[in-house]
Amino acid sequence: MNTYANRMNQYNKVNQQTGIVDADPHRLIQLLYNALKSNLSKARGHIERREFEQKGKLLTKSVEILKALSDCLDVKHNPELVENLAALYDYCARQLMQANLQNEVKFVDEVVELITPVQQAWDDIRDQVVQPKQEPTYNGTTATA
Fold first, then answer.
1. Domain assignment of residue 131, yes or no
2. Fewer CB within 10 A of the terminal residue: the chain, N end or C end?
């Protein structure tokens, strides 16, 4: 059974890496939000179970993801929105540091509440910002399998 679990973990890891390689920029941000929310959920559980080492690792990863999200902001598109998102990500990172120091789930819960609508808005605009992939053509005709 352990071998099966190891194989599934390997498969999931390869699948995840392939998803990242094939992802467009919008999808990469979605993956960051998904990873952030997953880490926060796990960290919350570790706080509740008083598993402080695991909690610390996940909260540190979450802060790194917030930094990555902040680094992806492009001031050319909407300076006011970028400024607001940068401030939100910074605030969330500070709250997660408090969660780590005080071992309090309320800080994690607050970050989840703040990030969820931003993530949802990002998901909602996908069709507006991502061009559909073109089918490969050969001599003017679409190639099909």
1. no
2. C
